[in-house]
Specification:
The protein is an all-alpha fold. Helices cover 86% and strands 0% of the residues. The chain is built from seven helices and no strands. The chain has helices spanning 4-34, 37-50, 52-66, 71-101, 105-132, 136-165, 177-195. Helix 2 (37-50) runs antiparallel to helix 4 (71-101).
Length: 196
């Protein structure tokens, strides 16, 4: 049974995770209902994305208290925050420029690839964490989470692909792979955290 400080740390993480989910849902509803324009939508989504910062700080506080926050994990958290903001910002810049400026040629290719920079930064952060982490047990848990995320993505993409082939579900763009993978990794870590 966790001690009182551990229970408080876990409750804090849960509260921030629920707040993040609520912020994303509210942000989506506000954007759909009120159409705040591109600048308003960007501001709303950056604030919602920013809700990951208190989650990460709560997780780090809890891990530091339990003695399992490694320097590699702290660096990973900062890289993921930067990558997620880069992704969000790149996505909005690319969509805005595409809709309003109607670029062509090389500029269009550049804009289409702009959001991928943030996604690539997040994947690089994951890879660097596995290389930099010195604790073998933590590295094993990270590898297990990555395998769970990969497996979940492959299964979901395969099942969805067959359903889509028979026109039972709508088409989902390929860029959805990164968010699905990240959510699956997050779920895996939540399961591990709940079992601990």
């Amino acid at each position: 049974m966790p001690s009182l400080p551990q229970a408080r740390g876990r409750r804090s993480i849960l509260v921030w995770c629920l707040a993040f989910c609520a912020a994303m849902i509210i942000a989506g509803l506000v954007v759909l209902r009120f159409d705040p324009g591109w600048a308003g939508t960007l501001a709303i989504m950056l604030v919602a994305t920013g809700m990951t910062i208190p989650i990460i700080l709560a997780v780090e506080r809890s891990a530091r208290f339990e003695g399992c926050l490694s320097p590699a994990m702290a660096r990973y958290n900062r890289r993921m925050i930067a990558g997620s903001f880069l992704y969000t910002l790149g996505l909005f810049v690319a969509v805005y420029a595409y809709k309003n400026w109607h670029p062509q040629g090389v500029l269009l290719w550049g804009l289409a690839l702009l959001p991928a920079l943030g996604a690539l930064a997040m994947v690089a952060a994951m890879a660097r964490l596995l290389v930099e982490e010195q604790d073998e047990y933590l590295r094993l848990k990270l590898a297990q989470s990555a395998l769970f995320g990969t497996g979940a993505l492959l299964v979901l993409a395969t099942v969805w692909g067959f359903l889509e082939q028979f026109r039972l579900v709508p088409h989902v763009p390929a860029w959805a792979a990164i968010p699905v993978f990240a959510i699956a990794i997050g779920l895996s870590r939540c399961f591990n955290w709940a079992r601990a």
